[in-house]
Design goal:
Elements (H helix, E strand, L loop, with lengths): L1 E10 L7 H18 L2 H6 E8 L3 E8 L18 H21 L3 E2 L3 E6 L8 H9 L9 E6 L5 H7 L3 E5 L6 H26 L15 E4 L5
Parallel strand pairs: 1-2, 1-4, 1-5, 5-6, 6-7
Antiparallel strand pairs: 2-3, 7-8
Length: 224
């Protein structure tokens, strides 16, 4: 079986409390319903949720969403340790892909949707990111789509992203409105990528992530 793992890595620091966290939590059941009720998408994809603040934790281990009744909620508090997020993510991917392959599945390179509303508060996060992204160091290095809202730094979001990066247009939309568009993009990417996999069979697939998302500026990942 062909499997495409998706990971949502979400900032749970104190600055996400209130409307921002409520918006993300409201979107999770909608994502779950959209994917779990589409047999083709549920069959081809697996989904995991990781939250991070002072530390990071796998809140929902990688799973077939059609086999779950609910997704856990996120809760805000603490600082913003990017390094903890990247280390927990790397460990989860290694364990998950190894397990899926051992079951005889054909596993595609994992896809990560990373969301933060601020600056990393830990030293050494770039080293943890390199350990995650460098294919010479980590054979399951994922494709990362990074989103910044509120006080996030576009340069840091660009550094985190290796497939596509987006920054909220603070002048035109609120963080809550931007997060609703983020959730739509995440769900749509999973659905269309899985549909592409089903259509192309053994010929691979195209990762479908919109180049433009309402409320966000698309960041250039090629500028040095």
């Amino acid at each position: 079986m062909q499997i495409l793992p998706f990971y949502l890595v979400c900032d749970e620091s104190a600055s996400m409390s209130g409307e921002a966290m409520d918006t993300v939590n409201a979107a999770l059941p909608e994502l779950h319903q959209e994917i779990s009720e589409n047999p083709t998408v549920a069959d081809k994809t697996r989904f995991a949720l990781i939250g991070f603040s002072d530390t990071a934790a796998v809140l929902q281990p990688l799973a077939d969403l059609s086999e779950l009744t609910t997704l856990p909620s996120l809760s805000a508090g603490g600082m913003t340790s990017f390094g903890a997020a990247f280390r927990v993510l790397r460990d989860a991917i290694e364990k998950d892909v190894t397990s899926l392959k051992a079951e005889g599945n054909e596993v595609y390179r994992p896809v990560v949707f990373f969301l933060s509303d601020g600056l990393p508060t830990d030293d050494g996060w770039e080293s943890a990111l390199e350990d995650l992204e460098d294919k010479a160091k980590f054979r399951y290095a994922p494709k990362i789509i990074a989103f910044g809202i509120s006080d996030a730094d576009p340069a840091i979001i660009t550094r985190v992203a290796n497939f596509r990066g987006f920054m909220q247009n603070n002048d035109s939309v609120t963080p809550a409105a931007a997060l609703r568009e983020f959730a739509k993009s995440l769900t749509q990417s999973i659905v269309t990528s899985a549909t592409s996999m089903a259509a192309q069979g053994d010929n691979g697939f195209d990762l479908k992530v919109e180049e433009k998302i309402p409320g966000f500026t698309t960041l250039s990942l090629d500028k040095l």
